[in-house]
Amino acid sequence: MERRTAIQILSAFVPSLALPPLTETIFAGVNRAIGDRAEADLADWEQIIRDHEIHEIIADSVTNMGNITADIIEVGRILDRTPSGPSRSAYLRISSQLSLALYDALLGKKDATAAREAIRAARRAADASGDRDLAVYMRAREAMGLYWQGQPAEIVTRVANRAILLAEDRPSAGLAYACKTRTYGLAAQAAKGTADPREARQALNDVFDMFERLPDQVRQEKMTYKGFPESQLRFNEAWVSALIGDTTASYRAADAAIAAFPSQRVYAIANCRSMQALTLVREGHITEGLDHALSTAPGLPVTAARRLITGHILDSLPAQARKLPAAQELRTLTAAA
User: What superkingdom does the record give (predicted)?
Assistant: First the structure.
C-alpha cells in the first residue's frame, strides 16, 4: 500500500507519471511470496540505479519521480528486515543513490524543501553504509545542485569543501565533482569582485591535477555522474573561464567539451553552447550571441543549469540591447521554465 500511495500522491503533480495498478495487483502475491527483491538481486538494483542516472542525464528527471519513489520505499522495506552486515550496507548504498535521484528530480520541480529532505536521507544512508567515497559523492552532488539552483557562492563552496575534507585526498568521482563545484563558487565570487580570479584559476588547475589521479573506470564512464571523463574537465574549464572573463579559453574549452560528450548528453551539450553564446555577447557580438543562445536546444526543456547560464547572458547585455526581440524571447523562454 505504501508504494501505491506514494505513486498516487506523486501523480497528482507529475502529469506524465504512468500508474501500473493492474500489473501491481497481478504480481502482488508473487512478490510477497518471494520477498519482493531478494538479496541475490543486488546487481539488479545497481542496474536500476544506473537507469535512473541515465534518465536524469538524457531526459527530464521529474517524469521519473514516481519510479524513484516506489524504489525508495521498496528498498526501505528490504532494509527493515535486513540485519547488520554486508547486505545491509549494500542496500544502504542503494537507498542513498535512490534518494540522490529523488533530490535531483525535486530540484527540477523547484521544491527546495523536499529536496533538502531527500539529500539529507542520501547523506545519512551513505554515511551509515560505511562507504566513504559514496559519502563524499553525496555531498559533492549536493553542492552541484545548490550551485545550479542559484544558491550563494559562499554556501556552495562551504558544502563542496565538506566533501573535499571528508575525502582526505582519496581520488574519486565525488572528490572530482566537489573540486569542480568549488571552482564554480570561487569563480562566481571573483565575477562579483569579492574574490581574486587567481584563486579560481588555481582551483581549476587543481581539478586538472585531480583528473590525472582518477581511477581509469572513473575517467572512462561518460554517461552518468559516477564518471568524471574529459568532457567534464572541459565543461568545468569552459564555465570557470567564462565567469572570470577569459572568453577565448571558455569558447575553446566548450568546443572541446561538446566534441567529448556522447551525443545523448543533449543537456550538457546545450549548456556548452549556451556558454559560447555568453562569450559571444561579452565580446560584443550581441546579435550573434543571442541567436546562438536561442538555437542551442530548440524544444528541449530548460534546466536549472541552462537557466543560470542564460541569466548571465541577459545580465551581460548592454542596456540598449536588453529590449531587442531576441533578448525578450530568451528572457521569456527561461522565465517560463
Answer: Bacteria
